[in-house]
Amino acid sequence: MFANNSQSFNKNIKVSISLVTFNHEKYIKQAIESILMQKVNFNYEIILGEDFSSDTTRDIVIEYHTKYPDKIRLILPEKNLGCSGQKIFVQTLKACQGEYIALLDGDDYWTDPEKLQKQVDFLDSNLECAICFHDVTTFFEDGSQKPRKYNDFEPKKISTIENLLKCNFIPTCSTMYRKGLFNEFPDWYDSIICGDWVLHILNSQHGKIGYINRDMGAYRVHSHGVFSGMSRIKQLHEVITCYEYLNKYLKFKYNKIVKFEKAYKYQDLALAYKDNGDLDNAKKYAIKCRELLLSEPFIGIIVIIKLLKRIYVSKMAAYKLRLNKT
């Protein structure tokens, strides 16, 4: 069962909700119900992409489609599309017919019945904004941390692509954006992990980013999350890869920002490898960090001295430990 992938807007649909799910049998009902509880004065549709789960997720979404056939359209590929969920994500987005698109993953949910209405009102009133988002609470399923705000800082009321390139402060489940801001996804999009961040950047080329200071959603961190389930080292490598793709795609317009952010990611990688006892890779990425900062000598010298000091102190301690054992 496939949704119609027409790019034209359906004037009767104000908002399309792109809901992507895979092996979310524990969570998907809560995600769908959090959409159905919305109190709105417009029509909306749910485009639900189920990426051939190995659990009962598909049975659950078909059951909901049977109950709400006029509200829910399904995308049900006959095999898992892979690419860390990017292919099914793109399919759901292309099937959306509304003026605005809201995002929700099958393991997250909304907590405020006025969420969609408030975001629609915001975008209707702020034509300079391509995107708007709001606060969400991060929950750690294993109980390792207490629930906390998604961001550890207060986002600006209005942000730009320059801010977004420095870090992804937009929770996926809080996103609403104007449909049709760019023509096609880049051909490299399927090969990345941070698809939501890249989508935000593609959209933010065409308008500003508005922030609604209200907690209206829940982001769930668990071991099976595509990004949150990765090691810190793997996450950093994935982010660096995105920066490399984005820099070329944006024709190096924001090269200085990208260069600095890559340098700091190399610094984080060096320290992560150091913490794992891999001092060779720690040195390798410390050098990469230094090379990117050469054009900014004062900042570069401070960063690299601190970084190499931490790495080589660890290396000397490891060497002395080996001597003491012999």
Structure description:
Residues 1-9 and 314-326 have low confidence and may be disordered. Helix 7 packs antiparallel against helix 8, helix 8 packs parallel to helix 10 and helix 9 (279-293) packs antiparallel against helix 10 (297-325). The N and C termini lie far apart (67 Å). Strands 1, 2, 3, 4, 5, 6, 7, 8, 9 and 10 form a ten-stranded mixed sheet that branches. Strand 1, helix 1 (28-36) and strand 2 (44-50) form a beta-alpha-beta unit. It is globular and about 60 Å long. It is built from ten helices and ten strands. The chain has helices at residues 28-36, 57-67, 86-95, 115-125, 161-166, 195-204, 232-249, 255-275, 279-293, 297-325; strands spanning 15-21, 44-50, 72-75, 100-105, 109-110, 129-140, 148-149, 158-159, 176-178, 208-221. The protein has two domains: 15-221, Spore Coat Polysaccharide Biosynthesis Protein SpsA, Chain A; 232-325, no CATH class. It is an alpha/beta fold and 326 residues long. Residues 16-183 form the Glycosyltransferase 2-like domain. Keywords: Glycosyltransferase, Transferase. Its EC number is 2.4.-.-. GO terms for molecular function: glycosyltransferase activity. This is Glycosyltransferase.
Number of E-type strands: 10
Q: Which parts are unreliable, with pLDDT below 50 for 5 consecutive residues or more?
A: 1-9, 314-326
- What is the number of helices? 10
From N to C, what is the helix and strand string? Answer: EHEHEHEEHEEEHEHEHHHH
Label the structural class: alpha/beta
The second-level CATH architecture of the largest domain is: Alpha-Beta Complex
**Amino-to-carboxy terminus distance:** 67 Å
Relative strand content: 15-25%
Overall, the morphology is globular
Tally of separate domains: 2
Could you tell me the mean pLDDT? 89
Roughly what percent helix? 40-55%
CATH topology-level name of the largest domain: Spore Coat Polysaccharide Biosynthesis Protein SpsA, Chain A
Please describe the biggest sheet, giving its number of strands, its sense, and whether it closes into a barrel. 10 strands, mixed
